[in-house]
Write a structure and sequence with these properties.
Number of helices: 29
CATH class of the largest domain: Alpha Beta
Low-confidence stretches: none
Radius of gyration: 29 Å
CATH topology of the largest domain: Rossmann fold
CATH architecture of the largest domain: 3-Layer(aba) Sandwich
Oligomer: single chain
Structural class: alpha/beta
Shape: globular
Number of strands: 25
Length: about 725
């Protein structure tokens, strides 16, 4: 575990508690940082700490940290190296390029980003965010693949943070009157986190005027500590007594928390107070939620109890809520505290947090470093299309299941992102020299899933994939068409070129009967041609808790019903958009179902989806920038899926949801045939015909869903054989 320092702070406590719990689970943990108040706690838990100046950006500190980390990793051969801040992550990212260790990170905050930090930041092979909005921050600001970002919680030690904790040591040290009321605020006092401390000092006179037997206890060191101390000292002089007790960074946080009657704070500090059955006011530099109670759970959860985007903290808001709690009866306070404790026990256990990390560590398989791949994957990869990215995920995972040591190179639009995401070698798909170098050293070219050999979009796409196949053949690679759809292909010359390329293949597996018929019609005779299924049928659904949380983030109510709708870019087709909007409105009026838009390629699809939602007059809810397993889980709750995008229909089928396709491309009908469905709206569909199809789908939903489950299981089993065939062909 590498972090900047071990002083008071949410991220620091997170690392300490995580390290201790992983150690209890049987793992050997080493922590490296610049040190701080928590080093003693680690030592008492039997966890070794190595001191390095990871808290400074100065060239000398960075150089010292670089060589210190290099020596440590080389000597001790760690299974996982885990960074918890940007400076350690930057240094470890440089080391990882030559030392090739498994490298992961945690994202605890959404720092301000500029072009420089965006360029040098390194988030490792996989990352864990401590809240959904921080995950979205990583996606938006660093263009990270959602499938490489997990989400965990701030796990709380419920035994340590409870109302039964003995606080005599702290009480005696500071001469605190037990009979007084105590307002406690705990946070690192840095300039970007200390605002609520100033607010508390500002409102002290009003509080003491009504409740003179009140102590305000502010705890935490930092770069703004001197300024807040000066403000507190001046206020105490004005009040004529020590009403505000201020202390630097401490480790007896559980004891201090236990004496609070009202706790003010955010993030981990607030969760620890909730674990101790305390009434909590959520107030931080990034926003203000106020008194935490049941109806604020979803709002607080979205930002990991940090109040981001919840309006600013003000003296007036804080004073109002503090006075409300101080005036409340013991029964009302106890009720709040009991609910808070229950929230922690059910959602924020320390063991659950450690298990999330352990699962991530286990998913990072120790792939061997290699300069060249034995297998080259070619496809429409790296364009931000969720369907094609899912194909790549599934094909790589399947190949590695069959042969964990398989060496893979991917031709992609953004090779650096593919390298980070999948731990494979990647080459720019438009670099002829890079492609030649890769194919000279490889043994097998896999034309990845999708409809690659077609010219309905453009001849350029067809020429590109034919060129890659010819290049592979020139360098004596075997060639496999992996779970493709073929066609449509226009033009006799193009048909002959495709026929020639397919006859040069060593194995062809096709996902639809229509493609099988076209290949036979072309006169392809040399390679073995087999019927298979789309690799996405092998995708695993994300966990139930994760899906439940994402539903809350998207804003899907448990008592409402939804249908999925996936549209392609329709900039110039205003009439088409109006027609679909009318259909959505009629579905809503007749059944009460609400639309959830699924832009598979958000850059192009989202504007169309938003325009259609606007025309329908219904609220816009969107599933975008999610991992394949998350999309699968979210779709499973839909009544049906209405789609122009092939892979939305495939996901729907895999999720056991009735699929209905808009026939913008023949591959839509070809796929639906494979699941025995004729639920297709032709290009000239009308509202009455569309509603008749939807009525039939709604009426027979259970039977259709049951059939989709059978089809999904069959397709999954068939698809798995392709990876075995590819590895056999390679060897």
């Amino acid at each position: 575990m590498a972090l900047m320092a071990l002083n008071i702070g949410g991220a620091e406590t997170h690392v300490v508690e995580l390290s201790k719990e992983l150690s209890r689970m049987g793992h050997e943990i080493v922590v490296t940082s610049a040190g701080g108040v928590y080093t003693k706690e680690l030592k008492e838990a039997g966890i070794r700490h190595v001191r390095l100046p990871l808290h400074k950006k100065t060239p000398l500190s960075v150089i010292r940290s670089y060589f210190g980390l290099r020596r440590l990793i080389k000597e001790e051969n760690f299974d996982v190296v885990h960074a918890h801040a940007r400076i350690p992550a930057f240094i470890l990212g440089i080391l990882q390029k030559t030392m090739h260790f498994r490298f992961t990170t945690s994202a605890h905050l959404n720092f301000k980003v500029n072009a420089f930090w965006r360029k040098i930041s390194n988030w490792g092979e996989k990352s864990i965010a401590v809240s959904e909005d921080i995950k979205q921050y990583l996606i938006d600001e660093y263009d990270m693949n959602p499938g490489c970002i997990g989400v965990t919680i701030n796990g709380i030690d419920t035994e340590r943070f409870s109302k039964e904790i003995n606080a005599d040591g702290f009480v005696t040290e500071f001469g605190i009157d037990r009979s007084n009321r105590h307002i406690v605020y705990i946070s690192r006092m840095d300039a970007d986190r200390s605002a609520p401390a100033f607010n508390l000092v500002n409102i002290a006179p009003q509080i003491l005027e009504k409740f003179p037997d009140t102590d305000i206890i502010i705890v935490g060191g930092g770069d703004d500590f001197a300024r807040i101390k000066s403000h507190a000292d001046n206020m105490n002089k004005r009040l004529g007594k020590r009403a505000i007790i201020l202390t630097d960074a401490r480790t007896d946080i559980a004891e201090i928390t236990s004496i609070s009657d009202v706790f003010v704070g955010v993030s981990r500090s607030a969760l620890e107070a909730m674990s101790a059955s305390k009434a909590v006011i959520l107030s931080g530099n990034q926003g203000y939620i106020g008194i935490f109670e049941k109806d604020k759970f979803d709002l607080a959860l979205r930002s990991n109890f940090c109040c981001r985007d919840s309006g600013p903290t003000t003296d007036e808001k804080l004073l109002s809520d503090v006075m409300t709690l101080l005036q409340s009866s013991k029964e009302e306070i106890d009720k709040l505290g009991a609910y808070n404790r229950l929230v922690i026990e059910e959602n924020f256990s320390l063991h659950k947090m450690a298990k999330d990390y352990e699962d991530m560590y286990r998913s990072m398989r120790p792939y061997r470093y290699y300069k060249y791949g034995d297998v080259v994957l070619s496809g429409y990869y790296g364009f931000g299309n969720m369907g094609d990215d899912s194909l790549l995920t599934c094909i790589i995972d399947e190949l590695r299941q069959v042969d964990p040591d398989v060496k893979i190179t991917v031709f992609a639009k953004n090779p650096s992102k593919i390298r980070k995401t999948f731990g494979v070698r990647a080459v720019n798909r438009f670099s002829v020299l890079g492609m030649i170098s890769a194919l000279r050293h490889s043994k097998l070219l896999i034309n990845g899933g999708g409809n690659l050999l077609q010219n309905s979009t453009s001849n350029r796409s067809l020429f590109y994939y034919l060129f890659v196949m010819r290049l592979a053949k020139h360098y004596n690679n075997k060639i496999m068409i992996y779970a493709n759809g073929i066609g449509p292909i226009k033009g006799e010359k193009n048909l002959n070129s495709v026929k020639e390329a397919l006859n040069d293949c060593d194995l062809i597996t096709l996902r639809e009967d229509d493609s099988m018929a076209l290949v036979k019609e072309l006169g392809v005779t040399k390679p073995v041609v087999l019927r298979t299924a789309d690799p996405v049928f092998r995708m695993k659904t994300a966990g139930k808790n994760r899906i439940a949380l994402m539903r809350k983030i998207i804003g899907l109510d448990a008592d409402k019903k939804y249908f999925a709708i996936s549209l392609r870019r329709m900039d110039d087709d205003v009439c088409g958009m109006e027609k679909i909007a009318k259909l959505i409105k009629v579905i809503n009026e007749k059944y009460g179902y609400l639309p959830v838009f699924v832009p598979m390629q958000p850059k192009y699809d989202s504007p169309t989806c938003r325009k259609v939602a606007e025309l329908s007059g219904l609220d816009y809810k969107e599933i975008a920038n999610v991992a394949g397993g998350e999309l699968l889980g979210l779709l499973s709750d839909m009544e049906f899926a209405l789609s122009m995008r092939l892979h939305t229909l495939i996901y729907a089928c895999a999720a056991k949801v009735p699929p209905i396709g808009f026939l913008y491309d023949m591959k839509i009908a070809a796929f639906l045939k494979t699941v025995d469905s004729d639920s297709v709206l032709d290009s000239d569909w009308n509202l009455d015909g569309a509603m008749a199809l939807i009525d039939k789908t709604v009426e027979n939903k259970d039977a259709i869903s049951s059939h989709m489950q059978e089809c999904a299981e069959r397709h999954s089993a068939v698809s798995h054989e392709d990876a075995k065939r590819a590895i056999e062909l390679l060897k």
